[in-house]
TrEMBL record, chain A:
Keywords in alphabetical order: Cell inner membrane, Cell membrane, Ion transport, Membrane, NAD, Sodium, Sodium transport, Translocase, Transmembrane, Transmembrane helix, Transport, Ubiquinone
Function: NQR complex catalyzes the reduction of ubiquinone-1 to ubiquinol by two successive reactions, coupled with the transport of Na(+) ions from the cytoplasm to the periplasm. NqrA to NqrE are probably involved in the second step, the conversion of ubisemiquinone to ubiquinol.
A Pfam family assignment: Rnf-Nqr
Gene, per the UniProt record: nqrE
Catalysis: reaction(s): a ubiquinone + n Na(+)(in) + NADH + H(+) = a ubiquinol + n Na(+)(out) + NAD(+)
Annotated protein name in UniProt: Na(+)-translocating NADH-quinone reductase subunit E
Superkingdom of this protein's organism: Bacteria
Keyword Membrane attached: yes
Family: Belongs to the NqrDE/RnfAE family.
EC numbers, comma separated: 7.2.1.1
TrEMBL record, chain B:
Topology versus the membrane: Multi-pass membrane protein
Presence of the UniProt keyword Phosphoprotein in the record: no
Organism lineage: Bacteria, Pseudomonadati, Bacteroidota, Flavobacteriia, Flavobacteriales
Principal EC category: translocase
Protein's name in the database: Na(+)-translocating NADH-quinone reductase subunit D
Function noted in UniProt: NQR complex catalyzes the reduction of ubiquinone-1 to ubiquinol by two successive reactions, coupled with the transport of Na(+) ions from the cytoplasm to the periplasm. NqrA to NqrE are probably involved in the second step, the conversion of ubisemiquinone to ubiquinol.
Matches recorded under Pfam families: Rnf-Nqr
Binding partners and assembly: Composed of six subunits; NqrA, NqrB, NqrC, NqrD, NqrE and NqrF.
Annotated family: Belongs to the NqrDE/RnfAE family.
InterPro entries in UniProt: NqrD, NqrDE/RnfAE
Length: 239, 214
């Protein structure tokens, strides 16, 4: 039950892109076509799935205050937590390198289509963010850390897939020239983030999220105009 | 600008507007959006990036001829990680409350694409002094957007700037609140950051038609 809860929480409520804005750079840069978006999304799921549990082990047995006590009594007072950035990024860089080698060996066509984006996963903040959130939220077991890794990977995949699909469609819409490309993508992502906020009450029954909902009601009229603009544009094109 | 030649001055001026890292180069978006609910956090974040990018660019530029190109990503990551650890420890020592607000985002400067992007695009091919100017220019451009976004979000969302109540007191109904103004709490939530940046891009591209895509 704990696993299922964390799984859905990391996909929908704490969605990497919409709730914490992690991995936005590659999200914006690679979301022009659905096919590349799927490839990158899958790679991100895999890397998160491997690095979060690995970093959990590192955190548990090396980095936390007192984590070195398995070496002997005299090491128990050491606190290496300031090293966590370097350790985490080293794990991630190594894993990305490994993924690159494996993909190149077994699927050269996928390797060629991903191109420069594979090494860029190493500097995707969603990956490091996954490990840092795992550390700061104090996820208790290795199993839960794995669930968290795969869940947030799927959440990121979902986000990039949907924005890529929308961007493929929006090419046929009449967007104001100054807003074309980057601007409209930002605004759509904002609207999608508002949509994802409604998942907030999914696991709690909405009780402790009540004040948030009140806030959304106030600006509803503004949102509608934004939506209406998009709809109106679509109608124009269809005519 | 007696100190700088015209070419060097351009390194600082360009990223502020027409080659802005956030709105044009699309780098370093994550942190720009996540920590802009308060002006103070945005300013501290900009200063941290200024420090890391300025020094990191110089270090990479000094080492550019001895780094083998195959492992350059790892070398760059290590340099950034070391600098970020310094920033993180300084923040924890002197501004503990603020470092709690920034939470993991200080650590995420490591993977901030502005840093890697400028290392790759500039520091690996230019001398230390020009790299330093480039680092300063780009982090200032980043900071400008951060501060604009945070200014509007904090002002409209909480009615304060840097924690000072500039619009009057919402509970005792003084200042603008006397006329029936209400804080728009929605501005403090995550999605509005995206929409504010979208609007900034819209304004910028309407003023400078050369930047329009397609």
């Amino acid at each position: 039950m704990e696993h299922i809860e964390l799984f859905f929480k990391s996909i929908f409520i704490d969605n990497m892109v919409f709730a914490t804005f992690l991995g936005m750079c590659s999200y914006l840069a690679v979301s022009k076509k659905v096919s590349t978006a799927v490839g990158l999304g899958a790679a991100v799921i895999f890397v998160l799935l491997v690095t979060v549990p690995l970093n959990w082990l590192l955190d548990q047995y090396l980095l936390q205050p007192g984590a070195l006590s398995w070496l002997g009594e005299e090491y128990a007072s050491y606190d290496l937590s300031f090293l966590s950035f370097i350790m985490f990024i080293a794990t991630i860089a190594t894993m990305v390198q490994l993924v690159e080698i494996v993909v190149e060996k077994f699927s050269p066509s996928l390797y060629n289509s991903l191109g420069i984006f594979l090494p860029l996963i190493a500097v995707n903040c969603a990956i490091l963010g996954g490990s840092l959130f795992m550390q700061s939220r104090e996820i208790p077991t290795l199993g839960l850390a794995t669930t968290y890794g795969i869940g947030s990977g799927i959440g990121w995949f979902l986000a990039i897939l949907s924005i890529a699909a929308i961007r493929e469609k929006i090419r046929y819409s009449n967007v104001p020239p100054a807003l074309r490309g980057l601007g409209i993508t930002f605004i759509i992502t904002g609207l999608m983030a508002i949509g994802f906020m409604s998942f907030g009450g999914m696991l709690t029954g909405g009780d402790d999220e009540a004040p948030k909902e009140e806030k959304t009601v106030k600006v509803d009229s503004k949102l509608n105009t934004e939506d209406e603009k998009v709809i109106a544009n679509n109608i124009k094109v269809n005519e | 600008m007696g100190l700088l030649s015209k070419k060097d001055a351009a390194l600082i001026k360009d990223p502020l507007a027409d080659n802005n890292p956030i709105t044009i180069q699309v780098l370093g978006i994550c942190s720009a959006l996540a920590i802009t609910a308060e002006l103070e956090a945005a300013i501290v974040m900009s200063i941290s990036v200024l420090f890391v990018l300025g020094i990191g660019n110089v270090v990479i530029s000094l080492m550019r001829n001895i780094i083998p190109s195959k492992i350059r990503i790892i070398v760059q990551l290590i340099v950034v990680a070391a600098l970020v650890i310094i920033v993180d420890q300084v923040l924890k020592a002197f501004a503990y409350e603020l470092s709690k607000t920034l939470s993991v985002f200080v650590g995420l400067i490591i993977t901030n694409c502005i840093i890697m992007g400028r290392f790759e695009a500039f520091a690996l091919g230019n001398g230390p002094w020009r790299s330093f100017l480039d680092g300063i220019g780009n982090s200032l451009g980043y900071g400008v957007i951060l501060i604009i976004v945070a200014f509007f979000r904090e002002l409209l969302g909480a009615g304060t700037l840097l924690g000072i109540k500039v619009l009057g007191d919402p509970i005792e109904k003084t200042g603008v609140y006397a006329f029936g103004y209400e804080n728009n709490g929605f501005m403090l939530l995550a999605p509005m950051a995206l929409i504010v940046v979208g609007i900034i891009i819209w304004v910028q591209r309407s003023r400078n038609k050369a930047l329009i895509e397609d």
